[in-house]
Design brief:
With about 350 residues, the protein is of the alpha/beta class. It is built from 13 helices and 14 strands. The relative contact order is 0.11.
Length: about 350
C-alpha cells in the first residue's frame, strides 16, 4: 500500500511586480501588476509504506512547498495528491491524526511554558487518551533521554534539546507518516547521530514512513535507501542512493604507503595493462586511481604481492560532491567523462577516506 501518491502536482504563486521609481510606486498604489511563478512543476512520485525517502534540492527548488502541500498547509494549483488515503487539504481534521511534522526552523512547542505542558496541550489537540499518552510519552522520553528537560521552559533549551522535544511532540499521537524538514539543522555531530539512530529504530520497529528534506547529505546517507532530487520545481532523479553513486562516482583512489622508497615507473609496472593511473606523493607514498567498473581487489592483489606495505587508505567520492556536480550539469541522466575526471584526483579534500578493515565510512 502507498503512503504517498503524487501525480502531476503543481503549485503556482501570484507575485506582485513592483514598478521602478516614484511614478511606478504611485501606480502600484492604484493598480497592481502580478506575475505567476511556479514553485513545483508537475511532479509525480510514489512512496510505499515503511520507506525512508530523502527529498533534496537547492534553496528554492520547491522542497518545502511540496512538504506543505503533502501536509495540507498549502492547496495545490493542480494535480493529484493522496497521503495515507486522504487528500490532505480536503480531509485535514482526520488527516492530521495520521501524520507527524517537524520543521527544523519552526516550533510546535510553546516558548514560555514547560516542555511537559506543551506535550499535554498537544495531547488534547490530537485527542489522545490519557493512557495512550502516558505510555507513548514514557517510551519516547526514555528513548531520547529527556527526563531532565520536561519541566524546563522551551526558551531555556539548547537547539539540540529542543529538536529532541520536537520529535516527541510530532510522535505523541503515534503517526504512521513522519515529515521532517531540516530536522538536524544547526545541530552538533553528537546530537545529529542520536537523532539519526532514533529515526532508524522508529522505522525499523514501528514501520513509520519518513520523508526527509535536508541540506545535510550525511542525513541522507545514514537514513535513506532512496532519494528524490528536485531542481527548479522538477524531479531530476528518483532512485536508489547507491545507484546514484555508481552512475556519478569518479571511481576510487587507493593510497599506498610502502616500507621502502618507490618510483613512479616501478609502481606503474606493478599494475601492468590495467586502466589505472598512478601519482607519487613522496618517495614512499603513491596513489592509484581506479575506475568505478574495476574491482579494487584486482589492483590490491597485484601491488601487495610485489611490495611491502605499511598502510593502505581508500578514498570514495562523497555524496556532497556528486550532488553538487549533478546540479551544475542540470541533469542526473548524463554521467561525466571519467577520463577527464581522473585528472582531478590529485587532491583529497573533496573525498572521504575509508580505511580498510573495520569501521564505518
Amino acid at each position: 500500500m502507498l503512503a504517498i501518491d503524487v501525480h502531476q502536482l503543481r503549485k503556482e504563486f501570484k507575485v506582485q511586480k513592483n514598478r521602478e521609481g516614484l511614478k511606478g510606486a504611485l501606480k502600484d498604489l492604484f493598480k497592481r501588476e502580478h506575475t505567476e511563478v511556479a514553485a513545483v512543476k508537475d511532479i509525480s512520485f510514489q512512496i510505499p509504506q515503511g520507506e525512508i525517502c530523502g527529498y533534496i534540492g537547492e534553496n528554492g527548488a520547491g522542497k518545502s512547498t511540496t512538504i506543505k502541500m503533502l501536509t495540507g498547509i498549502l492547496v495545490p494549483t493542480s494535480g493529484k495528491l493522496v497521503v495515507n488515503g486522504y487528500v490532505p487539504y480536503k480531509d485535514r481534521e482526520k488527516f492530521v491524526q495520521e501524520i507527524g511534522v517537524v520543521f527544523g526552523q519552526r516550533s510546535q512547542l510553546w516558548w514560555d511554558i514547560g516542555v511537559i505542558e506543551s506535550f499535554r496541550l498537544l495531547r488534547k489537540v490530537y485527542r489522545v487518551s490519557e493512557t495512550d499518552f502516558r505510555h507513548r510519552l514514557d517510551e519516547l522520553v526514555e528513548t531520547l533521554q529527556l527526563q531532565d528537560l520536561l519541566n524546563r521552559p522551551v526558551r531555556k533549551l539548547s537547539l539540540g534539546q529542543r529538536m529532541r522535544c520536537e520529535l516527541v511532540a510530532a510522535l505523541l499521537h503515534n503517526p504512521s507518516i513522519l515529515f521532517l524538514d531540516e530536522p538536524t539543522i544547526g545541530l552538533d555531530i553528537v546530537v545529529k547521530t542520536e537523532i539519526r539512530e532514533f529515526l532508524k529504530r522508529l522505522n525499523r520497529e514501528q514501520g513509520t514512513t519518513i520523508l526527509l528534506t535536508t541540506h545535510d547529505l550525511q542525513d541522507i546517507e545514514a537514513l535513506c535507501s532512496r532519494v528524490i532530487m528536485l531542481d527548479d520545481g522538477r524531479i531530476i532523479y528518483d532512485g536508489g542512493l547507491e545507484e546514484l553513486k555508481s552512475r556519478w562516482g569518479k571511481g576510487r583512489e587507493v593510497q599506498f604507503q610502502f616500507t621502502d622508497p618507490v618510483s613512479l615507473p616501478a609502481v606503474s609496472a606493478m599494475t601492468g595493462d590495467l586502466a589505472v593511473r598512478w601519482t607519487l606523493e613522496n618517495d614512499v607514498t603513491a596513489k592509484v586511481w581506479i575506475p568505478r567498473e574495476m574491482n579494487v581487489s584486482e589492483v590490491l592483489s597485484r601491488v601487495v604481492g610485489q611490495q611491502d606495505i605499511s598502510d593502505i587508505k581508500i578514498f570514495e567520492t562523497n555524496t556532497d560532491e556528486i550532488v553538487r556536480e549533478i546540479y551544475q550539469s542540470g541533469s542526473a541522466d548524463a554521467p561525466r567523462d571519467l577520463s577527464a575526471l581522473s585528472d582531478d584526483l590529485g587532491s583529497t579534500d573533496q573525498k572521504e577516506p575509508v580505511k580498510t578493515g573495520a569501521g564505518e565510512s
